[in-house]
Task: structure prediction
Amino acid sequence: MPDIDVNAPGTTVLWMGNEGIARGALEAGVGFASAYPGTPSSEILPAIAEVAKRMGIYAEWAVNEMVAMESATAASLAGIRSIAIMKQNGVNVVSDFLANLVMRGIGKGLVLICADDPGPHNSSNEQDTRPVAKWLDIPLLEPGDFQEAKDMTKWLFDLAEEINTICMLRTVGKIAHTRGNIKLGELPVVEHKAHFAASYGFRGAGPHAELHKKLAKAQEKFESSPFNLYIGPDKAELLIIACGASWLYSQEAVRLMNLQDKVGLLKMGTIYPLPEKFMEKHLKKASKVLFVEEVHPFVEQGVMELVGTLPPSGPHPVFYGKRSGHIPAYGDLDPSVVIKAINSIMGLNYQTRDAEYDKKVKALAQSYVTARSGTLCPGCPHKASHWAIHRALQLTGHEGFGTSDIGCYGGGGVGSFGITKTHFCMGGGIGVANGFGKLGRFGFDQPVVAFCGDSTFYHAAIPGLIDAVYNGSNVLMVIFDNSATSMTGFQPHPGTGRNAMGEPAATVSIEAVCKAIGAQVVICDPFELKKTTDTLVDMIENKTGVRVVIMDRECELIRARREEPPYRVYVDPEKCLGEDCGCDMFCNRVFLCTGLTWNRQTGKAEIDDVICAGCGVCVDVCPHGAIIKEPYTAKGKEKVAVKGKEKLKEVAAR
Result:
């Protein structure tokens, strides 16, 4: 990650959109940054934290998004420009606070950054947060490229102060995580000094009517905003209205089809409230309008609402987009989607590539590309934890299952051996299991195990656990404690002993919290499979009150950075039964560690020395003792290196 505080105004750099957002905050003179990690927003706070001490800034990973927003608001009220950063799920968490905040006003500039995940590629849902901004009356911008990611962020701080309300920037994964050219601006010299006066931060505060005056002022500024742009002929056969990453896709589609003299492109950067005069002016350019935006038809509906209020003499074009079925209302887009829509509307037949060639590519892909389900890293302690839970539920019977939430450990199906049956939001594992645990009076007797990660425990699981104790629920909670927020990039949390700026921090013990709440607590090492399984069986069969098992084993990717693997693991081909083992290739088909492979020529299992993390868990899984582990010595290391070179040669030969 680059040092975003480089003092080189006018220089063009190749940065991710997230790094551009962080730089924009610096150029605005931000003094306080708080976030909860959530991809695709996760890189923004670390970029700021990396330079925080040098810039006199405070940066933190908050325990959840609500706390991040509340803390940033406090700093704003005390006269410090502040930013809160999260993904789309986090906006749900802060919505209660936001609904009250917009009615009160702020102090210094306060900006909410939300990164949505069309696809979704890194999320449990594909929520579009733009309707939240409209629902709560928050001025909203969306960058169409990497330069705008920086420039909009900087500009929003000024807007927030001018109209005295929080402002919001919505970005998406392909802007957040793609690199593009960004021209740097000046870095201000700011001496941050906090002071909260009794009335400060509430000037102009009032009821809903006051908020609408602020929106009207924002709308007036949006009418002449440089973030709205038209490219194309004065009179076009088709007008494309695009925002966000869809602006890039639309430009590429029109350029590939060579329609620059027939199709107009209108980029909207100010998404809510829409600049109505600007929009009405450009709607006159064509009788057909295509909306290109990711997920919800937000701009499409806004423009339709506007046109519905115009007099008969105003523009009333035919609209195409998600309502007409020309643009999908789900998933992330690409130029081919736009090309297909243009073809349909304009009666064209442009092909991105020869149909016969396309057919051959798809056939080759089906022949050589193996479909893969989601999995866990080699050596991941969660694999062992899931295996122990899976075995314990088998041994106790009664159709037991797991309820999970979001994290590496939350993988359904293969990732948890099929035991995960519900998979909702953070804290949802214990929340749902808590509900099941109260159904004994109705004859419910299925064992239920709630899954929760260590970072998630601090974020959202504690209330559910308290409720379970208070209301006498019969529930077992398993906390997967791998000492990091691993799924989003190993960010620290209250249990790791350090903060976002790398400083030592107080450690909040999960065990102590659970015991203080009133739960029975046992700590297990998931790599000790038999002991862990026996403990889980006892906990499941003991149907008295709230029980917690903490699976205490550090994330393999963190451990591997500082030390060698504990073991060299290999398969004894004489002992391996191959396809005759158990239920057909037991280790490969059932346990499914990515370090385990299958040699089709010999019909035996093998260990991929290059991938294997050396945890040795598969040794205990093999029913015939065919997998062997030995201490990882220098000789073993040499064998792995040779195997790695052979693998590289094999790949190169292909």
About this structure: The chain has four domains: 12-222, 229-346, 381-559, 567-653. The chain is about 40% helix and 15% strand. The longest helix spans residues 634-653.
